[in-house]
Amino acid sequence: ARLAGELHDAILGGQLRLLYQPVYDLVTGRMHGAEALVRWQHPSRGFVSPADFIPVAEKSGLIVPLGAWVLREACSQLARWQAALGADAVEAINVNVAVRQLRETGFVDEVAAVLSDTGLCPANLIIEVTESSVADGPQVTDTLRTLHDMGVRLALDDFGTGQSSLSLLRAFPVDVLKLDKSFVDGIADGADRGRLAVAAAVAQLVEYLQLKAVAEGIESEAQLIRLRDMGYRYGQGYFMARPLPPGECAELMAAAP
Ligand code: G
Ligand code: G
Ligand code: MN
Ligand code: NA
């Protein structure tokens, strides 16, 4: 409760920051986009990890104003990058959206307003949702369909870890599958045939369904090569880049091949 109160002040008081982790095209080596990841610089507690405060924000409902701030700030940042470096320098911004936000009746209007205010094309925005939020119910499914029909792209985050991955793909207009890091770990040593099989099956599924595949949490060149050979066109991970402040991210964009 204490943390929730402080989080409320943090949202209003400008203690939140966004870092951006590049998403690379593994074939061309170009930066395709970046995922916005929120950070909280607390005045006395110091750095508070999103792994600690996002669950608090979800429980208290503060995720709604917090998420609204993240969405607007991330889209504004992409618009600034495109204005400074050209629209070809970076195509997409990935924003994590919690199920509580998707349940709000005003969410679609909020997205439309942010796109209009920032001048972004809907396809520039990739909304990341988890499998459990997609399975929340008809209202959330409706919201996701409306966003997809507007041209906003939808990514299923942490893919492969949920319960009902395959049936979800038929019920919901997904554009991007993000293979969870747990399947990427150890993929180059062939440590675990089960995880390897999931990674390969997801790559095939993406090809059949004509989606985009992003492999998350790539930490070595051997993993990158293995995943690219499996058919993963896009990847993210510490091997390429950590989550970065916007200026450092822009330097990597400007230095693109
Ligand atoms: O950046 P890091 O790996 O520490 O993030 C930890 C968790 O917090 C991840 O599950 C990530 O998806 C989540 N997260 C980070 N930023 C946001 C955000 O802006 N909104 C939501 N809903 N989750 C976020
Ligand atoms: O749940 P979601 O996939 O949105 O969370 C992404 C989280 O993974 C972020 O907290 C980010 O900091 C973290 N992350 C990104 N790349 C790597 C990586 O290569 N290794 C590890 N350990 N974590 C990563
Ligand atoms: Mn994510
Ligand atoms: Na993930």
From TrEMBL:
Domain of life: Bacteria
Residues of the full protein shown: 506 to 762 of 768
Record keywords: Hydrolase, Membrane, Nucleotidyltransferase, Transferase, Transmembrane, Transmembrane helix
Residue ranges annotated for the EAL domain, each copy included: 1-257
Organism name: Actinoplanes sandaracinus
UniProt keyword annotation of Transmembrane helix present: yes
GO terms assigned for molecular function: cyclic-guanylate-specific phosphodiesterase activity; diguanylate cyclase activity
UniProt name for this protein: Bifunctional diguanylate cyclase/phosphodiesterase
Keyword RNA-binding listed: no
